[in-house]
């Protein structure tokens, strides 16, 4: 097939890039991945993924050159020159974290990727930005390409935001809900239709826009998701005050298809490397554009969300009782990652709660199925246990803070034997209250009646 002749490079092999590179190889292309960190490249070239993501390592090993039985379509390098010579289409997948002490995002990885790539573009190429960036970045980067690429205007830019979720990265990349491309020419659109021919044939909608709209689709989608979570968490606050049940409420409003059931799980709120920093960067950018009033509600979304963490700490303090607060109390924390099926602890509400309790004198013991290493690196002073059972041993209160399947399958009776007090607070509204109460536990959850 003629489109398979296109050669693809992926610049930045973190979460997004590693997944995108493997997915492009799966679609049948020859792919070259580049990262500036040699250790990352060595690992990937050996068929190992530097993070936990279900199905990604298998997909990688299916295609990485040199691995027995692989298609050999996927290779890795640290050489910009090689990337420039190889690629017809270059995907830029570097990250844009929040700047320290500021709302704005840090564009330095994107800027340096473009600065390194441009001088290597000695033949016509399409550069496709996938990173989440402030609106207006694509126009600026497009001018930079034309100016610095040896092929001049034959080095073209497109913007193609990514919507994958951690934990579902492979599936979301191979079968996306939609593909959004911001382009300035028919040639760019045509190339991207070729690249995404597989998913398009399977029914993924293909939305063509200008640059600013493509950039905005990403930040507005994440803002909407964050708003939905904070909305239900605001309802949880009201439910607690009025003795209502936010879980029932979410179910009931969710039957209205205009509202929908998804992303209405109340609890300790959203975290991770995306939603929190994206809404802040969006506010910062709107401010620069003189449109800050349009997004003041996101400040509220952010503060409702941050309030959840403090509220969980308060519920725990209240639960262990006494005027001494957490002093001398053992607190078991189930979950460290910002969500299940990931080892990512960036801006994790669970670890934030654990850290606050530790600072207030509680003896915290954390267990997480996949996030232990990352958690220990970030919060070395917390206690850790190798299993949920060991974390719960001797605990005065158990906090369920990340809704791993493993925690839903725990046997409350078995845990009850080792806990000092049978008291569990569900910060994710994900456990079965009847199951725990049936085994003699006091079960409490956020936004639900105490019962
Ligand atoms: C999010 C978006 O969902 C993706 O579409 C987007 O591509 C990605 O950010 C990104 O910008 O790269 P992700 O950060 O992987 O994906 O995680 P989500 O599944 O969105 O969950 C975010 C947080 O919200 C988690 O802490 C989760 O526990 C919390 N959450 C989610 C709730 O508290 N309640 C819910 O009902 C749903």
UniProtKB/TrEMBL annotation:
As its record notes, the protein acts as a catalyst of: UDP-alpha-D-glucose + 2 NAD(+) + H2O = UDP-alpha-D-glucuronate + 2 NADH + 3 H(+)
Q: Does the keyword Oxidoreductase apply?
A: yes
Q: What is its EC number?
A: 1.1.1.22
EC main class here is oxidoreductase
Q: Does the keyword Cell division apply?
A: no
UniProt xrefs under InterPro entries: 6-PGluconate_DH-like_C_sf (IPR008927), NAD(P)-bd_dom_sf (IPR036291), UDP-Glc/GDP-Man (IPR017476), UDP-Glc/GDP-Man_DH_C (IPR014027), UDP-Glc/GDP-Man_DH_C_sf (IPR036220), UDP-Glc/GDP-Man_DH_dimer (IPR014026), UDP-Glc/GDP-Man_DH_N (IPR001732), UDPglc_DH_bac (IPR028357)
**Family assignment from sequence similarity:** Belongs to the UDP-glucose/GDP-mannose dehydrogenase family.
Mind telling me what this protein is named? Answer: UDP-glucose 6-dehydrogenase
Q: What is the organism field in this record?
A: Streptomyces enissocaesilis
- Highest classification ranks of the organism: Bacteria, Bacillati, Actinomycetota, Actinomycetes, Kitasatosporales
């Amino acid at each position: 097939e003629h489109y398979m002749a296109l050669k693809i490079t992926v610049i930045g092999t973190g979460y997004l890039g590693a997944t995108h590179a493997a997915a492009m190889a799966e679609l049948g292309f020859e792919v070259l991945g580049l990262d500036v960190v040699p250790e990352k490249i060595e690992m990937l070239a050996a068929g190992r993924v530097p993070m936990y993501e279900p199905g990604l390592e298998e997909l990688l090993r299916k295609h990485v050159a040199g691995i027995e039985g692989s298609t050999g379509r996927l290779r890795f390098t640290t050489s910009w020159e090689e990337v420039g010579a190889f690629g017809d289409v270059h995907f830029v997948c570097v990250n844009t974290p929040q700047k320290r002490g500021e709302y704005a995002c840090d564009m330095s990885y994107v800027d340096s990727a473009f600065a390194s790539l441009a001088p290597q573009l000695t033949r016509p190429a399409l550069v496709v930005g996938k990173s989440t960036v402030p609106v207006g970045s694509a126009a600026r980067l497009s001018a930079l390409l034309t100016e610095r690429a040896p092929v001049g205007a034959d080095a073209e830019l497109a913007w193609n935001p990514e919507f994958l979720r951690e934990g579902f990265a492979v599936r979301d990349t191979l079968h996306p809900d939609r593909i959004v491309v911001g382009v300035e020419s028919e040639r760019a659109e045509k190339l991207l239709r070729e690249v995404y021919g597989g998913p398009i044939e399977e029914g993924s909608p293909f939305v063509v826009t200008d640059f600013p709209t493509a950039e905005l689709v990403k930040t507005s989608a994440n803002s909407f998701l964050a708003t939905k979570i904070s909305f239900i968490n605001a309802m949880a606050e009201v439910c607690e005050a009025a003795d209502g049940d936010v879980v029932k409420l979410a179910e009931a409003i969710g039957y209205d298809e205009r509202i929908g059931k998804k992303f209405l799980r109340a609890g300790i709120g959203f975290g991770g490397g995306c939603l929190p920093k994206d809404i802040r960067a969006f506010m910062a950018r709107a401010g620069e554009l003189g449109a800050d009033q349009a997004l003041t509600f996101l400040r509220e979304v952010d503060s409702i969300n941050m309030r959840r963490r403090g509220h969980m700490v308060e519920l725990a303090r209240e639960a262990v009782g006494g005027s001494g607060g957490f002093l001398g109390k053992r607190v078991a924390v189930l979950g460290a990652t910002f969500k299940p099926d990931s080892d990512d602890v960036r801006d994790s509400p669970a670890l934030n709660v654990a850290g606050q309790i530790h600072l207030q004198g509680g003896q915290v013991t954390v267990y997480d199925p996949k996030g232990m290493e990352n958690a220990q690196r970030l919060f070395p002073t917390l206690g850790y246990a190798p299993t949920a059972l060991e974390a719960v041993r001797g605990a005065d209160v158990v906090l369920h803070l990340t809704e791993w399947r493993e925690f839903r399958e725990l046997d409350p009776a078995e845990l009850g034997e080792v806990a000092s007090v049978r008291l569990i607070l569900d910060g994710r509204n994900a456990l079965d209250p009847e199951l725990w109460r049936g085994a003699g536990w006091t079960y409490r959850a956020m936004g639900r009646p105490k019962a």
